[in-house]
Every structure is written in C-alpha cells, then in structure tokens.
C-alpha cells in the first residue's frame, strides 16, 4: 500500500520460499503512525500473520526484515534495520538490530522491508535489484562462513548490501546470528530461523533515494545533530577512544562486571581485557556504521588482515566471566564466532554456566575456568553441534533443566544475560526480567548508564524509585530503534556538562541522592498524556524533530515517547498470546537471594518489591497483563483482551505441569 508519508518507500516484499512466489505485503498508514518501523512494525506484522503456538523452527514461522523511516535518510547513525520472528531461543518475540549495509540498500531498491515465509527445498538466497527480485540457488555456498558467503552472493556487485548466516545458522544453533558486512544481528536466534528455511542470505541494491518531507529543515536538524554528537563527551570523546569497552574497568570497580559465571562482580585482572589495553596494544583504527559520526567500532589485525575487533560484551563474557585474562585470545574468539555466525553474548554466558556445572560436578564436560584450549574447542563444537556442543547449542535454559543449576542459571525467558551483573545495577536487573525478548541490556533500558557507568549515577542497590526509570528508558530506547537510529544516540539524554561532576565529590553526591529519590517525578513523566508534551528536545534527543521533518507525521516528544510505550505493550501482548506470562518475568535465585557483597545484605535484586510497581506503572494488572483501559489508551484495543488472559494462564499452567 502506497503511503502519504515520506521517509518510507511505501512497499514491502512478501516472499514464500515453499512456493517460490514473490508478491507485496500491504502496510497501512495507521500502522506506520502507531509503530513507526523496525522492531515495532515487525511485531505488529507478526501479530497479524503468525498463528499462536507455532514452532519457531518450522516453516510456519515468518521472518520479517524491516527498515525504519530514518534508515538511509542521511541522519546520524541511521543505517540500522531489524530482523524479527518468533524466537527459537525463547518462544517469545524475537528481534535483532544491526548497523550493516543491507537495510539501507533495501530501501534504495525501493522496499521498506520484506516477509519471508515457508521453507525452500534446497539452500537459496534472495537477491533484490530495484524491482527485480529473485530466489537463487545457494547450494554451493552452504557451509561457508559469514564472510565467504557474502562475497560469493555479491559477486561483482561490491556496493550492494548483504547479510548471511554461517554454519551455526545452518545447524540450527538456537543463538545463531545473521551477519551484515561485519555487523551482527546477534540476539534471539534469527540466524537459526533463516537456517530452518534453507535461507543462506540476502543481497540488495538499487538506485532510489529516500524521500524527505521537508528537506531544508531536515538538513539543518541533521547538521546540528551531528555537531552535537561530535561535541558530546560520551559520543564525541569516550566512545571513539575506547569503544564500548570504556566501561569495563569502572564496572569492575563498582562490582558490576560478571565474573566466574556471575558469581562475583569484580575481576582483579580487569585491565588485561580492558578497552584501554585494546586501544594501546591492538587497535589499528576506528570504524563506524554507514552515516555514523561516533565511530566507536574497533579494527584489529589478525594474521595480516584488518577485521572488526571485540566489543565490551565479549571482552567480559569470554574474559572475566570465564576467568580468561588473555585479550589476544578473546580477539581471535570474537572473529571466529562472527565467522561461524553465533551470538557472542550467549556464547560467553553459556560457556560460563557450563564451566560452573562442571566445577560443581553436575555435568562433567571438560570446561574449566581459564582453560582456553577447552573453550576454543567448544566454540567450534557448538557451531557444528559436535559432542558437548550439541547441548551447548541449546542454551542456558536447556542446560539448567537437563543438568541442574537453575538457581544460578543466567537467563531470562531463555535468553542469556549480557555483561552486567544484575545485583550491581538493580534497575537494569528489573529491565532484564521484564524485557520482552528476554535478558537484554538494551531492551532493559540500559539503566546501567544511569546507575554505574554514566557521569551522574543513582544508588546502584537501592530499589525504591527504580521502576519508573526502567519504564522510561525502556520506552525511549525502543522508540529510538523503531525510528531508525543507533541506540548510542540516546547517550545525549545526559547533558554534556554532567561529565564534569565526577571531579566534584560533594556535588556528585548531591546529584546521586536526587536521582535516587525522584522516582515519583519520573513516574509523572511516564504517565503524562502526549498532548501535554507537544514539544521537541533538540538539545537532548533530536529524534522526534527529525522524524517529523522526514516523514511529515504530526509527531512531537509526547507522541514519540507514546510510540515507545505502545510498541512495548504490543510485544508484551505477543508474548502473552504465546503463553509467556508473569512466571517468566524473573531472575535466578543467585541474583535475588544471594548478596553480591557479603557485607551488604542490600546487594540483591528485590524483584518482589519492584515488579508490582513496574506493572502498575505500565498499566498492567497484578499478573502482568495490560488492562483494557491501557489497550484503549494506546490504541491497541483491536486485541481480544479475554483471549490474552486465557492464553497467558494456559501457558503458565502448562509450564507448571511440565516442571
């Protein structure tokens, strides 16, 4: 369906691999207004086209590749696009975002996204060149790694966008990734969904440009926005210098660095795996996604080749979490895991959990703390499902049910916990428990920035007043993504002058106390009706202003943040329809019952205190189900509320019976 709005191409592909048919999927302007794009519009489409209860690895699952209105617009950090489906890791909504070049090139070909249904009889890939769309044989590249595959699909068309799975996706590793250039759609197993469809990858190229509603105003906004990012301490200085690993040493100092399978929060050899050491000894140069002025990416050299270097997550989860202090080994693992096509977060967390199972005698698997040789072998075995790799490929939840250790199993809803110790950042922990795709530092709202790693922070163990912060940042982070920006553009939410506070202890303590005790103010902000916030915040978050000028939508900060709330509820409804209810909004007992700091009984996650307040603020009932009034307020009243209640209850009962 053509659209009256700019920023969109107005068309979506609908491809059925079973029948080989290629058509178009119709998206209404109403859905564009309500959900924008990316993960949120994808979730609405999956709600419409998927039957509840399907097997995520069956041909009934539908893969949605979705861009956003700012994708390819020339705005800062707008190469982002999303891949969504029902997740094989969790059974919940699955989505994963990347800054690779495929999304921008898909829009240049004239398409906002595509649906991929069914399953091909033999391996295939999809090629889109403007209006010409073909399903091509991929038998010769089946088995290739993610880089070889992309080169083979691109052929002579080096400027096209590409994405591919590796051996892990082909072998249905539950946390298999999709790689575009060297950027990864890591989380929730979208690579396994592609593998289940015999879909090796996609390429796209085109000659079109993204239409802009008010080019002159948009250009001026973008110019100021880029300058703001370049001048902000977080995005213009810290991130370019140290990348995402800038936080590793501070996290260890503040007891929030996962170490030895999240059993402690500090590592005495943190410097050996730090962003500082990476920059001093191994950094070749910086790089960034297309249209990114931040350029936080690391380039390192492996065997004479310049390749993407490790991010914070793998430095921690394959470092301190496994008691490995060899940064060169982690650099090599990072490259290998990307080539095999696996999520580095899940890989590191799974290996850490398996090592503790081995240590406790629950599963004698040969994985020992600090044993680099054993971990190296396990990485390959996971991708090809050999030996212990066949079980590791299923993830932490599966391992804990088969071998034990559920009390210290680091996952939520089946998705492994990222590299922030929950007890060291309790607002982030609440975000982990409530995040719709499972444990995710980004879907959690990245509250660790407000509690530990940012220039001004709250009391990291105090639970009072934290639920409003979690709701606010979850909504804002999600709508930033749905609009088409990298989430790092949200770092400017904390004004630049705040970075001068760490050198002023008294003032820092005052700010810490204020932030820790203004939960009621944040709650009022969350509850404020959009019509009272008909403003933009160009000096903090220019996103709503840029979207208005790009699309022509009647959008302001109030309606923009409401989209975040609406989309989050849409994802929650999807999960409830799949029977994923309140009993999965939780963390393992290690995090809720065992103090992180033996001399501080408050260093646990008080989920019992925070979760009810979180539900009330969201407009959900005591069972975590959005109320009818909430659905009406968010324009989600097309949902059958009674059906949601029944399926959520049935899902909880079914899990109790299985256990």
Could you provide a short overview of the structure?
By secondary structure, the chain is an alpha+beta fold. It has 27 helices and 17 strands.
Q: Largest sheet, order of strands side by side?
A: 2-1-6-3-4-5
Number of helices: 27
Give the overall average pLDDT. 95
Structural class: alpha+beta
The overall strand count is 17
Shape: globular
End-to-end span in angstroms? 47 Å
Query: Ranges with pLDDT <50 over ≥5 residues?
Result: none
Largest sheet: 6 strands, mixed
The value of Rg in angstroms is 23 Å
What amount of the residues lies in strands?
Answer: 5-15%
**Estimated helix fraction:** 40-55%
Structure description:
The chain has 659 residues and is an alpha+beta fold. The chain is built from 27 helices and 17 strands. The strands form five sheets. The protein has a six-stranded mixed beta sheet. It has a four-stranded mixed beta sheet with strand order 8-7-12-9. The chain is globular and about 65 Å long.
Give the SSE map.
Elements: E1 12-16, E2 21-25, H1 29-35, H2 38-49, E3 63-66, E4 81-86, E5 93-98, H3 102-108, E6 113-117, E7 124-129, E8 132-137, H4 146-154, E9 161-164, H5 167-170, E10 178-180, E11 183-185, H6 190-196, E12 199-205, H7 215-231, H8 233-242, H9 248-253, H10 275-282, E13 285-287, E14 297-302, E15 305-308, H11 312-317, H12 327-340, H13 344-359, H14 372-384, H15 389-392, H16 396-403, E16 411-412, E17 415-416, H17 426-434, H18 448-453, H19 466-483, H20 505-516, H21 519-527, H22 543-551, H23 557-577, H24 589-593, H25 607-618, H26 628-633, H27 641-658
Parallel strand pairs: 1-6, 7-12
Antiparallel strand pairs: 1-2, 3-4, 3-6, 4-5, 7-8, 9-12, 10-11, 13-14, 14-15, 16-17
Helix pairs in contact: 1-2, 2-19, 2-23, 7-8, 7-22, 12-14, 17-19, 19-21, 19-23, 19-25, 23-27
